[in-house]
Write a structure and sequence with these properties.
This protein has 114 residues and is mainly α. 67% of the residues lie in helices and 0% in strands.
């Protein structure tokens, strides 16, 4: 029996993540009928993010330079504030304003009712 090694699997997913993304986009573009798989996008994304997170260690965080951390936090905060300002300027509903601000950007499909 083969032993399950989460860190090894996570490393493989991380190493080939760009390839999987490009393959997925290409297949979705060439075969639009595959959109029926859209409900699976959240679990797939959860697995991808979770597997990449398994590769992090305290040493990884110690390698981040303080100036880079300040820059990252400023940009993330700035994007959320800009999204909030744009949503308010467009008089979006409170739910859309919160959604666009919390994600730091407005997704095209979030402003169109279904």
């Amino acid at each position: 029996m083969i032993a399950f090694e989460p860190a090894r699997l996570a490393g493989a997913i991380e190493d080939y993540l760009l390839g999987w993304v490009l393959l997925s986009v290409t297949v979705g573009f060439l075969v639009p009928d595959i959109a029926v798989l859209a409900p699976l996008s959240t679990p797939i994304l959860a697995v991808m993010v979770g597997s990449v997170s398994l590769t992090l260690s305290p040493g990884t965080f110690r390698q981040v330079r303080p100036r880079a951390l300040v820059t990252i936090l400023a940009v993330q905060t700035g994007m959320a504030l800009a999204a909030f300002g744009i949503a308010r300027a467009l008089s979006l509903s409170p739910a859309l304003t919160l959604g666009s601000s919390s994600s730091g950007r407005s997704r095209p499909n979030s402003s169109h009712p279904r």
